[in-house]
Amino acid sequence: MYLSTIGRRDSGPVSRRKLAAVGANVLALGSVSLVTDISSEMVTAVLPIYLVLGLHLSPAVYGLVDGLYTGATALLRLVGGYLADRVRRRKTVAGIGYALSAVAKLGLLAAGSSTAAIGAVITLDRTGKGLRTAPRDALITLSAPESVLGRAFGVHRAMDSAGAFAGPLVALGVLGLVGSAAGTEGFNAVFFTSFCIACVGLLLLVLFVRDRQTPAPATGSVSLRAAFGLLRGSGVRRLLLAACVLGAATIGDGFVYLLLQRKEDIASGWFPLLAVGTNLMYLLLAAPLGVLADRVGRLPVVLGGYGALTVVYLLLAGPVSGWPLLVLSLALYGGFYAATDGVLMALAGPVLPESLRTTGIALIQTGQALSYFASSVLFGLAWQFWGAGTATVFAAGGTVLAVLITLVLLNSRKATS
Protein backbone atom coordinates (compact mmCIF):
# COMPACT_ATOMS: atom_id res chain seq x y z
CA MET A 1 0.00 0.00 0.00
CA TYR A 2 2.94 2.30 0.64
CA LEU A 3 3.97 1.85 -3.01
CA SER A 4 0.78 3.52 -4.19
CA THR A 5 1.39 6.65 -2.13
CA ILE A 6 4.57 7.80 -3.88
CA GLY A 7 2.93 8.93 -7.10
CA ARG A 8 6.12 9.16 -9.22
CA ARG A 9 7.16 7.48 -12.46
CA ASP A 10 10.16 5.84 -10.83
CA SER A 11 8.14 4.97 -7.71
CA GLY A 12 8.62 1.22 -8.27
CA PRO A 13 12.46 1.12 -7.91
CA VAL A 14 12.49 3.89 -5.31
CA SER A 15 9.83 2.20 -3.24
CA ARG A 16 11.55 -1.16 -3.49
CA ARG A 17 14.75 0.42 -2.20
CA LYS A 18 12.86 2.03 0.68
CA LEU A 19 11.21 -1.26 1.55
CA ALA A 20 14.58 -3.01 1.36
CA ALA A 21 15.99 -0.45 3.78
CA VAL A 22 13.71 -1.65 6.55
CA GLY A 23 14.97 -5.23 6.17
CA ALA A 24 13.50 -8.63 5.35
CA ASN A 25 12.96 -9.40 9.02
CA VAL A 26 10.65 -6.40 9.42
CA LEU A 27 8.65 -7.58 6.41
CA ALA A 28 8.47 -11.10 7.86
CA LEU A 29 7.25 -9.73 11.20
CA GLY A 30 4.75 -7.63 9.28
CA SER A 31 3.45 -10.75 7.54
CA VAL A 32 2.97 -12.47 10.88
CA SER A 33 1.12 -9.45 12.25
CA LEU A 34 -1.01 -9.20 9.11
CA VAL A 35 -2.28 -12.77 9.43
CA THR A 36 -2.60 -12.58 13.22
CA ASP A 37 -4.58 -9.35 12.98
CA ILE A 38 -7.04 -10.94 10.58
CA SER A 39 -7.64 -13.48 13.33
CA SER A 40 -7.82 -11.05 16.25
CA GLU A 41 -9.88 -8.37 14.45
CA MET A 42 -12.47 -10.97 13.46
CA VAL A 43 -13.17 -11.33 17.17
CA THR A 44 -12.71 -7.66 18.04
CA ALA A 45 -15.16 -6.59 15.34
CA VAL A 46 -18.04 -8.67 16.70
CA LEU A 47 -17.26 -8.61 20.44
CA PRO A 48 -18.80 -5.21 21.35
CA ILE A 49 -22.08 -5.93 19.59
CA TYR A 50 -22.10 -9.47 21.01
CA LEU A 51 -21.57 -8.31 24.59
CA VAL A 52 -23.75 -5.18 24.62
CA LEU A 53 -26.61 -6.11 22.29
CA GLY A 54 -26.37 -9.89 22.55
CA LEU A 55 -25.62 -10.40 26.24
CA HIS A 56 -27.08 -7.00 27.28
CA LEU A 57 -24.09 -5.84 29.32
CA SER A 58 -24.38 -2.32 30.75
CA PRO A 59 -21.89 0.37 29.61
CA ALA A 60 -20.12 0.12 32.98
CA VAL A 61 -19.68 -3.66 32.73
CA TYR A 62 -18.64 -3.39 29.10
CA GLY A 63 -16.06 -0.76 30.11
CA LEU A 64 -14.59 -3.26 32.57
CA VAL A 65 -14.46 -6.00 29.93
CA ASP A 66 -13.04 -3.61 27.32
CA GLY A 67 -10.38 -2.41 29.74
CA LEU A 68 -9.56 -6.02 30.56
CA TYR A 69 -9.19 -6.73 26.85
CA THR A 70 -6.32 -4.26 26.58
CA GLY A 71 -5.00 -3.40 30.01
CA ALA A 72 -5.58 -6.04 32.65
CA THR A 73 -2.62 -8.21 31.64
CA ALA A 74 -0.39 -5.24 30.89
CA LEU A 75 2.12 -6.25 33.56
CA LEU A 76 2.84 -9.38 31.54
CA ARG A 77 4.39 -7.10 28.94
CA LEU A 78 7.10 -6.45 31.50
CA VAL A 79 7.50 -10.17 32.12
CA GLY A 80 7.74 -10.89 28.40
CA GLY A 81 10.11 -8.00 27.79
CA TYR A 82 12.43 -8.83 30.67
CA LEU A 83 12.41 -12.55 29.86
CA ALA A 84 13.23 -11.88 26.20
CA ASP A 85 16.18 -9.67 27.16
CA ARG A 86 17.34 -12.12 29.83
CA VAL A 87 17.43 -15.20 27.60
CA ARG A 88 18.00 -13.21 24.39
CA ARG A 89 15.31 -15.26 22.64
CA ARG A 90 12.84 -12.60 21.54
CA LYS A 91 11.31 -14.74 18.81
CA THR A 92 10.66 -17.60 21.24
CA VAL A 93 8.91 -15.37 23.78
CA ALA A 94 6.86 -13.73 21.03
CA GLY A 95 5.93 -17.19 19.70
CA ILE A 96 4.60 -18.26 23.10
CA GLY A 97 2.43 -15.13 23.12
CA TYR A 98 1.07 -15.80 19.65
CA ALA A 99 0.29 -19.42 20.63
CA LEU A 100 -1.63 -18.39 23.78
CA SER A 101 -3.77 -15.96 21.79
CA ALA A 102 -4.54 -18.67 19.24
CA VAL A 103 -5.68 -21.08 21.96
CA ALA A 104 -7.88 -18.35 23.47
CA LYS A 105 -9.97 -18.28 20.28
CA LEU A 106 -11.02 -21.87 21.03
CA GLY A 107 -11.82 -20.80 24.59
CA LEU A 108 -14.45 -18.40 23.29
CA LEU A 109 -16.29 -21.39 21.84
CA ALA A 110 -16.57 -22.93 25.30
CA ALA A 111 -17.33 -19.69 27.16
CA GLY A 112 -20.87 -19.40 25.85
CA SER A 113 -22.85 -16.56 27.43
CA SER A 114 -20.97 -16.63 30.75
CA THR A 115 -19.50 -13.19 31.39
CA ALA A 116 -16.98 -14.65 33.86
CA ALA A 117 -15.82 -17.27 31.35
CA ILE A 118 -15.55 -14.67 28.59
CA GLY A 119 -13.46 -12.51 30.94
CA ALA A 120 -11.14 -15.45 31.66
CA VAL A 121 -10.68 -16.21 27.96
CA ILE A 122 -10.04 -12.55 27.19
CA THR A 123 -7.42 -12.53 29.95
CA LEU A 124 -5.68 -15.50 28.30
CA ASP A 125 -5.78 -13.78 24.91
CA ARG A 126 -4.37 -10.56 26.34
CA THR A 127 -1.73 -12.57 28.20
CA GLY A 128 -0.55 -13.73 24.80
CA LYS A 129 -0.56 -10.20 23.43
CA GLY A 130 1.23 -8.94 26.53
CA LEU A 131 4.01 -11.48 26.06
CA ARG A 132 4.51 -10.96 22.33
CA THR A 133 4.20 -7.22 21.76
CA ALA A 134 7.44 -5.95 23.29
CA PRO A 135 9.68 -8.74 21.87
CA ARG A 136 8.18 -8.15 18.43
CA ASP A 137 8.72 -4.37 18.57
CA ALA A 138 12.22 -4.87 19.95
CA LEU A 139 13.00 -7.16 16.99
CA ILE A 140 11.90 -4.35 14.67
CA THR A 141 14.22 -1.84 16.35
CA LEU A 142 17.08 -4.35 16.06
CA SER A 143 16.32 -5.24 12.43
CA ALA A 144 16.40 -1.75 10.89
CA PRO A 145 18.86 1.19 11.08
CA GLU A 146 17.93 3.87 13.58
CA SER A 147 17.60 6.47 10.81
CA VAL A 148 14.64 4.58 9.27
CA LEU A 149 12.92 3.30 12.42
CA GLY A 150 9.86 5.43 11.74
CA ARG A 151 9.60 3.92 8.26
CA ALA A 152 10.23 0.41 9.61
CA PHE A 153 7.44 0.72 12.17
CA GLY A 154 5.24 2.40 9.56
CA VAL A 155 5.68 -0.49 7.10
CA HIS A 156 5.07 -3.03 9.87
CA ARG A 157 1.97 -1.20 11.10
CA ALA A 158 0.71 -0.85 7.52
CA MET A 159 0.92 -4.63 7.10
CA ASP A 160 -0.61 -5.09 10.55
CA SER A 161 -3.47 -2.78 9.64
CA ALA A 162 -4.01 -4.62 6.34
CA GLY A 163 -4.88 -7.63 8.46
CA ALA A 164 -7.00 -5.47 10.73
CA PHE A 165 -8.81 -4.18 7.65
CA ALA A 166 -9.46 -7.71 6.34
CA GLY A 167 -10.46 -9.25 9.70
CA PRO A 168 -13.90 -7.65 10.04
CA LEU A 169 -14.65 -8.43 6.39
CA VAL A 170 -13.78 -12.08 6.99
CA ALA A 171 -16.00 -12.06 10.09
CA LEU A 172 -18.82 -10.51 8.08
CA GLY A 173 -18.36 -13.17 5.40
CA VAL A 174 -18.43 -15.97 7.96
CA LEU A 175 -21.59 -14.58 9.56
CA GLY A 176 -23.13 -14.30 6.11
CA LEU A 177 -22.32 -17.91 5.23
CA VAL A 178 -23.56 -19.28 8.54
CA GLY A 179 -26.41 -16.81 8.85
CA SER A 180 -26.00 -13.93 11.31
CA ALA A 181 -29.47 -14.68 12.60
CA ALA A 182 -28.32 -18.12 13.74
CA GLY A 183 -27.46 -16.75 17.19
CA THR A 184 -24.40 -18.22 18.82
CA GLU A 185 -23.73 -20.49 15.82
CA GLY A 186 -22.64 -17.51 13.77
CA PHE A 187 -20.32 -16.19 16.48
CA ASN A 188 -18.89 -19.67 17.12
CA ALA A 189 -18.07 -19.98 13.43
CA VAL A 190 -16.21 -16.66 13.63
CA PHE A 191 -14.26 -17.82 16.69
CA PHE A 192 -13.24 -21.15 15.12
CA THR A 193 -12.18 -19.52 11.84
CA SER A 194 -10.19 -17.00 13.86
CA PHE A 195 -8.35 -19.87 15.60
CA CYS A 196 -7.39 -21.48 12.29
CA ILE A 197 -6.03 -18.20 10.90
CA ALA A 198 -4.07 -17.56 14.12
CA CYS A 199 -2.33 -20.91 13.64
CA VAL A 200 -1.20 -19.80 10.16
CA GLY A 201 0.34 -16.65 11.67
CA LEU A 202 2.21 -18.72 14.25
CA LEU A 203 3.57 -20.95 11.46
CA LEU A 204 4.83 -17.89 9.55
CA LEU A 205 6.68 -16.73 12.67
CA VAL A 206 8.39 -20.10 13.11
CA LEU A 207 9.42 -20.40 9.45
CA PHE A 208 10.39 -16.90 8.36
CA VAL A 209 11.23 -14.59 11.28
CA ARG A 210 14.87 -14.55 12.37
CA ASP A 211 15.81 -13.84 15.97
CA ARG A 212 18.26 -10.94 16.15
CA GLN A 213 20.94 -11.99 18.60
CA THR A 214 22.52 -9.05 20.36
CA PRO A 215 26.01 -9.44 21.87
CA ALA A 216 26.05 -11.24 25.19
CA PRO A 217 25.42 -8.54 27.82
CA ALA A 218 27.91 -7.80 30.51
CA THR A 219 27.33 -9.51 33.84
CA GLY A 220 24.51 -7.79 35.68
CA SER A 221 23.43 -5.64 32.71
CA VAL A 222 20.23 -7.69 32.33
CA SER A 223 18.82 -8.01 35.82
CA LEU A 224 15.87 -6.73 37.76
CA ARG A 225 18.07 -4.04 39.23
CA ALA A 226 19.19 -2.95 35.76
CA ALA A 227 15.60 -3.04 34.50
CA PHE A 228 14.41 -0.75 37.28
CA GLY A 229 17.52 1.31 36.65
CA LEU A 230 16.06 2.36 33.30
CA LEU A 231 13.85 4.75 35.24
CA ARG A 232 16.92 6.64 36.40
CA GLY A 233 17.26 8.02 32.90
CA SER A 234 15.34 11.27 32.43
CA GLY A 235 14.41 10.39 28.84
CA VAL A 236 12.86 7.06 29.81
CA ARG A 237 10.96 8.56 32.75
CA ARG A 238 9.52 11.34 30.61
CA LEU A 239 8.52 8.94 27.85
CA LEU A 240 6.89 6.56 30.32
CA LEU A 241 4.92 9.37 31.95
CA ALA A 242 3.85 10.67 28.54
CA ALA A 243 2.71 7.18 27.49
CA CYS A 244 0.62 6.92 30.68
CA VAL A 245 -0.97 10.32 30.08
CA LEU A 246 -1.76 9.49 26.46
CA GLY A 247 -3.15 6.08 27.42
CA ALA A 248 -5.53 7.75 29.86
CA ALA A 249 -6.88 9.87 26.99
CA THR A 250 -7.99 6.83 24.96
CA ILE A 251 -11.44 5.29 25.52
CA GLY A 252 -11.08 2.35 23.15
CA ASP A 253 -12.41 1.17 19.81
CA GLY A 254 -15.47 -0.60 21.18
CA PHE A 255 -16.82 2.58 22.78
CA VAL A 256 -16.15 4.66 19.66
CA TYR A 257 -17.99 2.16 17.45
CA LEU A 258 -20.86 1.78 19.92
CA LEU A 259 -21.24 5.56 20.02
CA LEU A 260 -21.29 5.69 16.22
CA GLN A 261 -23.76 2.80 16.04
CA ARG A 262 -26.02 4.57 18.55
CA LYS A 263 -25.74 7.95 16.84
CA GLU A 264 -26.34 6.67 13.30
CA ASP A 265 -28.69 3.79 14.19
CA ILE A 266 -26.53 1.28 12.30
CA ALA A 267 -27.93 -2.25 12.03
CA SER A 268 -26.01 -4.78 14.13
CA GLY A 269 -25.20 -6.87 11.05
CA TRP A 270 -23.17 -3.98 9.63
CA PHE A 271 -21.36 -3.19 12.87
CA PRO A 272 -18.07 -4.94 11.85
CA LEU A 273 -17.73 -2.53 8.91
CA LEU A 274 -16.99 0.34 11.31
CA ALA A 275 -13.65 -1.29 12.12
CA VAL A 276 -13.06 -1.78 8.38
CA GLY A 277 -13.32 1.98 7.80
CA THR A 278 -10.84 2.76 10.57
CA ASN A 279 -8.37 0.11 9.48
CA LEU A 280 -8.53 1.19 5.84
CA MET A 281 -7.38 4.67 6.82
CA TYR A 282 -4.74 3.17 9.12
CA LEU A 283 -3.53 1.02 6.23
CA LEU A 284 -3.26 3.97 3.86
CA LEU A 285 -1.50 6.32 6.31
CA ALA A 286 0.75 4.15 8.51
CA ALA A 287 3.79 4.00 6.21
CA PRO A 288 3.58 7.62 4.92
CA LEU A 289 3.24 8.98 8.46
CA GLY A 290 6.17 6.81 9.58
CA VAL A 291 8.30 8.38 6.84
CA LEU A 292 7.02 11.84 7.80
CA ALA A 293 7.98 11.16 11.43
CA ASP A 294 11.57 10.38 10.37
CA ARG A 295 11.70 13.65 8.43
CA VAL A 296 9.97 16.23 10.62
CA GLY A 297 10.22 14.58 14.05
CA ARG A 298 8.27 11.82 15.73
CA LEU A 299 6.74 13.91 18.51
CA PRO A 300 4.81 16.30 16.21
CA VAL A 301 3.31 13.32 14.36
CA VAL A 302 2.23 11.63 17.62
CA LEU A 303 0.65 14.82 18.96
CA GLY A 304 -1.09 15.41 15.63
CA GLY A 305 -2.61 11.94 15.95
CA TYR A 306 -4.05 12.76 19.35
CA GLY A 307 -5.37 16.01 17.92
CA ALA A 308 -7.30 13.91 15.38
CA LEU A 309 -8.62 11.78 18.25
CA THR A 310 -9.91 14.91 19.99
CA VAL A 311 -11.86 15.86 16.88
CA VAL A 312 -13.37 12.36 16.75
CA TYR A 313 -14.64 12.70 20.33
CA LEU A 314 -16.12 16.14 19.59
CA LEU A 315 -17.88 14.81 16.50
CA LEU A 316 -19.36 11.94 18.51
CA ALA A 317 -20.58 14.34 21.21
CA GLY A 318 -21.99 16.92 18.78
CA PRO A 319 -25.48 17.19 17.28
CA VAL A 320 -24.46 16.54 13.66
CA SER A 321 -25.22 13.12 12.17
CA GLY A 322 -25.34 11.43 8.77
CA TRP A 323 -22.91 9.60 6.53
CA PRO A 324 -20.41 12.52 6.21
CA LEU A 325 -19.96 12.41 10.00
CA LEU A 326 -19.53 8.64 9.86
CA VAL A 327 -16.88 8.80 7.12
CA LEU A 328 -14.99 11.70 8.72
CA SER A 329 -15.00 10.08 12.17
CA LEU A 330 -13.64 6.77 10.90
CA ALA A 331 -11.04 8.51 8.71
CA LEU A 332 -9.74 10.60 11.60
CA TYR A 333 -9.79 7.60 13.92
CA GLY A 334 -7.67 5.60 11.48
CA GLY A 335 -5.34 8.57 11.11
CA PHE A 336 -4.97 8.70 14.90
CA TYR A 337 -3.74 5.11 14.99
CA ALA A 338 -1.43 5.57 12.01
CA ALA A 339 0.20 8.61 13.64
CA THR A 340 0.66 7.14 17.12
CA ASP A 341 0.93 3.35 17.28
CA GLY A 342 4.29 2.59 15.69
CA VAL A 343 5.65 6.14 15.89
CA LEU A 344 5.56 6.12 19.70
CA MET A 345 7.70 2.95 19.72
CA ALA A 346 10.08 4.50 17.20
CA LEU A 347 10.36 7.44 19.61
CA ALA A 348 11.31 5.04 22.41
CA GLY A 349 13.89 2.94 20.55
CA PRO A 350 16.85 5.37 20.53
CA VAL A 351 16.64 6.17 24.27
CA LEU A 352 16.83 2.52 25.37
CA PRO A 353 20.04 0.41 25.60
CA GLU A 354 20.12 -2.65 23.33
CA SER A 355 20.59 -5.07 26.22
CA LEU A 356 17.32 -3.86 27.78
CA ARG A 357 15.51 -2.70 24.63
CA THR A 358 12.63 -5.16 24.99
CA THR A 359 12.23 -4.48 28.71
CA GLY A 360 12.15 -0.73 28.12
CA ILE A 361 9.58 -0.97 25.36
CA ALA A 362 7.50 -3.28 27.56
CA LEU A 363 7.72 -0.78 30.42
CA ILE A 364 6.36 2.01 28.23
CA GLN A 365 3.64 -0.19 26.75
CA THR A 366 2.64 -1.38 30.22
CA GLY A 367 2.22 2.16 31.52
CA GLN A 368 0.09 3.07 28.51
CA ALA A 369 -2.04 -0.11 28.77
CA LEU A 370 -2.71 0.31 32.49
CA SER A 371 -3.78 3.90 31.91
CA TYR A 372 -6.06 2.73 29.13
CA PHE A 373 -7.62 0.16 31.46
CA ALA A 374 -8.46 2.90 33.97
CA SER A 375 -9.76 5.18 31.21
CA SER A 376 -12.05 2.49 29.79
CA VAL A 377 -13.57 1.68 33.18
CA LEU A 378 -14.08 5.35 34.04
CA PHE A 379 -15.62 6.13 30.66
CA GLY A 380 -18.05 3.22 31.04
CA LEU A 381 -19.11 4.51 34.43
CA ALA A 382 -19.45 8.08 33.13
CA TRP A 383 -21.61 6.87 30.23
CA GLN A 384 -23.89 4.90 32.54
CA PHE A 385 -24.38 7.64 35.14
CA TRP A 386 -24.03 10.88 33.14
CA GLY A 387 -24.92 9.82 29.60
CA ALA A 388 -22.88 9.19 26.47
CA GLY A 389 -22.72 12.85 25.39
CA THR A 390 -21.33 14.19 28.67
CA ALA A 391 -18.84 11.31 28.95
CA THR A 392 -17.54 11.96 25.42
CA VAL A 393 -17.11 15.69 26.06
CA PHE A 394 -15.02 14.88 29.13
CA ALA A 395 -12.97 12.48 27.00
CA ALA A 396 -12.28 15.23 24.46
CA GLY A 397 -11.17 17.62 27.21
CA GLY A 398 -8.93 14.94 28.69
CA THR A 399 -7.25 14.39 25.32
CA VAL A 400 -6.47 18.08 24.90
CA LEU A 401 -4.94 18.11 28.39
CA ALA A 402 -2.92 14.98 27.59
CA VAL A 403 -1.49 16.58 24.43
CA LEU A 404 -0.38 19.67 26.37
CA ILE A 405 1.23 17.60 29.13
CA THR A 406 3.04 15.41 26.59
CA LEU A 407 4.31 18.46 24.73
CA VAL A 408 5.81 19.82 27.95
CA LEU A 409 7.31 16.45 28.90
CA LEU A 410 8.92 15.56 25.57
CA ASN A 411 9.47 18.78 23.66
CA SER A 412 12.84 19.39 25.32
CA ARG A 413 14.24 15.94 24.59
CA LYS A 414 16.80 15.66 21.81
CA ALA A 415 15.67 12.12 21.06
CA THR A 416 12.22 13.13 19.86
CA SER A 417 13.32 13.48 16.26
TrEMBL record:
A Pfam short name: MFS_1
Protein's UniProt keywords contain Membrane: yes
**What CDD domains does the record tag this protein with?**
MFS_MJ1317_like
Alphabetically list the UniProt keywords: Membrane, Transmembrane, Transmembrane helix
Check the record and name the InterPro entries matching this protein.
Answer: MFS (IPR011701), MFS_dom (IPR020846), MFS_trans_sf (IPR036259)
Gene3D superfamilies from the UniProt entry: MFS general substrate transporter like domains
Q: State if Transferase is listed as a keyword.
A: no
This chain belongs to which protein, by name?
Major facilitator transporter
Organism the protein comes from: Kutzneria albida DSM 43870
